[in-house]
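pinging the channel bc i need a second pair of eyes. not urgent but kinda urgent?? the chain im working w is below, pasted from the shared doc
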Amino acid sequence: MSATPQTSAPALSPPAIAAMKGGAPIVCLTAYDAPTARIVDAHCDLALVGDSLGMVVHGMDSTLGVTLEMMILHGRAVRRGLRRACMVVDMPFGTYEESPAQAFRNAARIMAETGAAAVKLEGGVEMAETIRFLTSRSIPVMAHVGLTPQAVNVFGGYKVQGRGDARARVMADAQAVAGAGAFSVVLEKTPQGLSDEVTAAVPIPTIGIGASAGCDGQILVTEDMLGLFNDFRPKFVKRQAELGAEADRAVAAYAEEVRARSFPGPEHVFADQLKGAAK
C-alpha cells in the first residue's frame, strides 16, 4: 500500500526561515488563538505567539505581567490552528534573564507543552551567552533587539532606539545574537538607515517592526493591523481593515434588534411538534 499523499506544504522550520535571508520577504504576524492562527497560517511564513497578548487580549498596561502559564495556554491554542507557518513563542519577562539554566528550563517547557518550533527572547549582547546555551541544546531562538518592550521602564517609554550614540549599541546587539546562534532577529523601532545596515551586516534574517522595508521580513500585531486593538496606534502600523468599528456596528445592531424583539425572527426559532407528525 502506498503512503498517503502529502496534501499540504510541510511546516516551516527555523532553518527554513533562516535560509530565506536575502530572498523573498518573510511574512510574520502574531496569533493568540486557534481561529486567528488558521487565518495567519494561510498567508504567513511565521506565527508569533507574542507576549503582547498581555495588552491585546488581557487588557494589561504592558507585557511585564505576562506569565509562563499564559504563554503556554495561548501557545497550545495557536498550535491547533497551524499547519505550515513556523510557530515561535515569546519567553515572558523574568523567565530567562537570571541564568542560561533558568532560560533552558522555561524554554524547554514552552516547546514541550505547546509544540512550538522556537522561542523568542529580548536582549542583545547581554543575552548572547543565554542564546548560545539554548541553541547548543536544541532550542532554536529568535532574538529581539532595538526597542525591547520588556525593558520599557529602562528606556523610559516606547521610544525609537538606535539614534545618536545608541546606533553602535543596536548594531553590536544584532551581531552578538547572530553570532550566538539565533536563527533570526526582530528589529523593533530602529531608524530606517540603521535597520538597513544591520540587515546587510548580519547573516540571519532581520524581521522589522517599525524598522525598514529593507529588512528580510516584517511583523505586526495582527489586531493592530486589522483595526481591532484601539488603545493606541503606533506609527509603524498600517491598518488593512477597521474590524473594531465594524464589530461595534454589528453589536449595536444586535442589541437594538434584541430590545425591539425583532431578533430572533421566525427563521431563527424552532416550531412546535405538530400532533400526529412523524418524529
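so Residues 1-7 have pLDDT under 50 and may be disordered. and The beta strands are 26-30, 46-49, 86-90, 118-122, 141-146, 184-188, 206-209, 217-220. — does that match what u expected or am i reading it wrong
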